[in-house]
Design brief:
The chain has about 300 residues and is of the alpha+beta class. The chain is built from five helices and 14 strands. The termini are far apart.
């Protein structure tokens, strides 16, 4: 037992290249996303650690209820503004979650220290304030033992067993390059108030393991379905007051055929949703030319 403790302590410093990341997520009501800092296809899944790990988020403390969005080797400190980059990869609609619904997705284990189990925390303000957030329930977890997994994807039987394997096989965490499903339930009654990448009513969810070599995981943005989620929209303007209808124009009274009385002007139709149009007042008049002809025949 004493030997195991000493052995674990002796190999711990070498296990600093441990990585697991959130590759893609979906809401149960639609929408897609990925973790802040993910660079997509430009990062290979298999290969040397230095080329597979640049977009894996590392957090400062193993406590899931710790503020901050973490950082990556490739881009440094994660920020709220980087939500725009995740949307450029995943689409214009963030994951949409029903009340008490689920976030599901893929957790990609890069190296042997980037495994499960994981925890999840929600920040309703969308700022990274997880210390005052709400704990979410992990319904489908990532395999692992205290953040460790074998290179073949099998869970080590104990931490002592894992330490022996690490001591005898690798000096750094070995590449795993495997995907595992994950599902997290958002507590009923959750409301989101954050703003990111032009989106309103945004929440952040932090998913991470508790491996002291990290911890590793990521932060995703999502919205509650039916809670005015989406971009800010301008309210429709009030209807314009109806103007007097064109039909209400005063009827004209022009004599038609020579000697024939002009037809009486038709009354105008009342204006719609406004002041009623004044009825046409065309009067029956005889053209000047028609009048003189009639008098001559009468004579």
């Amino acid at each position: 037992m004493r030997f195991s403790a000493l052995l674990i302590g002796s190999v711990a410093p070498t296990l600093i290249a441990a990585h697991g990341k959130i590759a893609v997520v979906q809401g149960d009501a639609g929408g897609n996303g990925t973790a802040i800092g993910i660079q997509g296809g430009i990062i290979p899944g298999a290969g040397k650690n230095k080329i597979t790990e640049p977009d894996t988020t590392v957090f400062g403390k193993t406590n899931i209820a710790t503020d901050g969005l973490g950082k990556t080797n490739g881009q440094g400190k994660n920020t709220v503004a980087m939500v725009a980059d995740t949307m450029a990869q995943s689409g214009s609609t963030l994951p949409q979650v029903t009340d008490g619904g689920m976030i599901t997705g893929t957790f990609h284990i890069v190296t042997t220290d980037g495994a499960g189990p994981v925890s999840a925390m929600i920040d309703p303000t969308g700022t990274g304030a997880f210390s005052t957030g709400v704990k979410a329930t992990v319904m489908q977890d990532v395999p692992g033992n205290k953040g460790n997994i074998k290179a073949n994807g099998q869970v080590p039987r104990s931490l002592g067993y894992w330490a022996l394997q690490a001591r005898s096989i690798v000096k750094r965490a070995a590449n795993v390059n495997q995907d595992f499903p994950i599902a997290v339930q958002v507590p009923a009654g959750t409301t989101c108030s954050g703003t990111a990448a032009g989106q309103t009513n945004v929440c952040f969810m932090k998913i991470a393991n508790s491996n002291k070599a990290g911890p590793f995981g990521g932060v995703i943005a999502f919205q509650m379905a039916g809670a005015a989620a989406g971009t800010t929209t301008t309210a429709g303007g009030a209807g314009t007051t109806g103007s007097t209808a064109a039909g209400a124009t005063k009827g004209s009274t022009t004599g038609s055929t020579t000697g024939t009385s002009a037809t009486k002007g038709t009354a105008g139709t009342a204006g719609t949703a406004g002041t009623a149009g004044t009825a046409g007042t065309g009067s029956t008049t005889t053209s000047t030319k028609g009048s003189s002809v009639a008098k001559r025949f009468a004579a």
